């Protein structure tokens, strides 16, 4: 019996959406055909932007799709949020060429989720994931490239790849867990008194400056509102990085293709939107993604729009979790707990592999040691 046939695809449109989503499932919108195709069709993830799609597909002898992976050849390390620029610089100093490299990831989205996507009805899912991992390494070798990186994967994929010789990397994000709260006040009741008062003051001050907050979903988000949100997005990018990854049409395509899973929270001054926070909704999780604002004196606006409104939405809709994006220890004081993120890396050059492996071993130990200290900074009441 022959094994699965593996192919690479230069555009995700070569793989029918129904077949891709049969492997991706409906839990995490970032690995959906709709999200990934919106990135490509808008020109946000394209060869011109340094993201050359090479999506991996595995089919059985009948042509049935068994597994896929969002796979890209990269000419840089931008838009990944698992930083390896120092590895590239060290390799260059030693005379090596780090770029191009291969990346299994969701472009511009530091959102944990599955990366080696196996159809729910496929036999022996882990055997297929191992085959996919070998195919990724084989592609790296045949193309003469430096490395393959599987970023923000699940803990299960991290363990599986680690057992197969991949280097392992940990990171930290901050997520809010819904313990079955009936209201925001019930959530606040689980916090220490001083922290509870601080959050109430922040929310009161945010609402006292004349702003109204409104949530729009799917088709409710008009082209005019998307154009306004793109202004917010650019203002944030200009302040922080000066490099806009996402093109204007990407946001419009999102609401067309993902419908009510797109959740846009907007702050209004009169009839004028002055700030917005873009979220995507999975089966049980609200994922915070992009935010931006106009210049103005609005205290605690970021906390209200990105964190507290998200918690309110999750409670109202019975969601289990809010994942508010990368970085930001300030989230701890607002009820978001530290959570590990996972990545796996295959590096072809033995010398670079050994050096990176030594660095990652020390980095993992430091992160694991720091996690209890970060959790102690959360505002929850401690048991007596």
- Overall morphology: globular
Widest sheet: strand ordering: 2-5-6-8-15-9-14-13-12-11-10
Measured between the Cα atoms of the first and last residue, the distance is 62 Å
Name the quaternary structure. Answer: single chain
Task: Indicate the mean pLDDT.
Answer: 95
The amount of beta strand, in percent, is 25-35%
Rg estimate, integer Å: 22 Å
- Note the total helix count: 11
Q: Return the structural class.
A: alpha+beta
Number of strands: 15
| Low-confidence sequence ranges | none
The amount of helix comes to: 25-40%
Q: What is the N-to-C order of secondary-structure elements (H for helix, E for strand)?
A: EHHEEEEHEEHEHEHHEHHEEEHEEH
Main sheet summary: 11 strands, mixed
Report on the structure:
The protein has 384 residues and is of the alpha+beta class. The protein is built from eleven helices and 15 strands. The protein has helices spanning 17-24, 33-41, 85-93, 125-143, 155-163, 184-188, 193-207, 223-240, 248-258, 301-316, 350-375, and strands at 5-9, 51-53, 55-59, 65-69, 71-74, 101-104, 117-118, 147-153, 167-177, 212-217, 262-269, 272-281, 285-293, 321-326, 337-347. The strands form two sheets. The protein has an eleven-stranded mixed sheet with strand order 2-5-6-8-15-9-14-13-12-11-10. Strand 11 (262-269) and strand 12 (272-281) form a beta hairpin. Helix 2 packs antiparallel against helix 9 (248-258). The longest helix has 26 residues, at 350-375. The model has no long low-confidence stretch (mean pLDDT 95).
């Amino acid at each position: 019996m022959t094994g699965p046939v593996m192919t690479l695809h230069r555009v995700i449109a070569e793989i029918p959406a129904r077949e891709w989503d049969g492997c991706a499932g409906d839990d995490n919108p970032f690995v959906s055909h709709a999200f990934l195709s919106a990135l490509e069709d808008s020109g946000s993830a394209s060869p011109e932007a340094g993201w050359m799609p090479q999506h991996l597909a595995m089919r059985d002898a009948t042509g049935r799709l068994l597994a896929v992976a969002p796979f890209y050849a990269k000419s840089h390390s931008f838009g990944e949020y698992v930083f390896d620029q120092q590895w590239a610089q060290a390799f260059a100093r030693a005379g090596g060429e780090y770029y191009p490299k291969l990346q299994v990831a969701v472009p511009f989205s530091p959102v944990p989720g599955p990366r080696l996507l196996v159809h729910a009805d496929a036999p022996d899912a882990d055997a297929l994931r191992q085959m996919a991992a070998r195919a990724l390494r084989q592609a790296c070798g045949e193309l003469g490239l430096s490395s393959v990186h599987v970023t923000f994967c699940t803990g299960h994929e991290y363990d599986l790849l680690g057992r197969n010789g991949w280097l392992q990397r940990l990171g930290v994000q901050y997520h809010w867990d819904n313990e079955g709260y009936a209201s925001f006040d019930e959530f606040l009741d689980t916090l220490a008194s001083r922290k509870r008062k601080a959050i109430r003051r922040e929310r009161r001050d945010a609402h006292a400056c004349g702003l109204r907050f409104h949530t729009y979903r799917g088709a409710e988000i008009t082209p005019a509102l998307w154009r306004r949100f793109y202004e917010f997005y650019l203002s944030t990018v200009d302040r922080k990085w000066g490099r806009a990854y996402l093109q204007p049409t990407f946001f419009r395509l999102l609401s067309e293709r993902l419908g009510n899973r797109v959740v846009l929270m907007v702050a209004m001054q009169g009839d004028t939107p002055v700030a917005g926070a873009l979220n995507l909704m999975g089966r049980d999780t609200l994922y915070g993604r992009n935010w931006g604002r106009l210049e103005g004196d609005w205290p605690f606006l970021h906390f209200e729009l990105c964190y507290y409104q998200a918690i309110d939405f999750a409670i109202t809709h019975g969601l289990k979790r809010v994942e508010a994006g990368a970085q930001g220890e300030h989230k701890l004081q607002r009820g978001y707990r530290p959570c590990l993120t996972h990545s796996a890396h295959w590096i072809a050059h033995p010398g670079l592999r050994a050096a990176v492996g030594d660095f990652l071993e020390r980095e993992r130990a430091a992160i694991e040691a720091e996690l209890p200290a970060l959790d102690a900074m959360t505002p929850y009441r401690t048991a007596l």
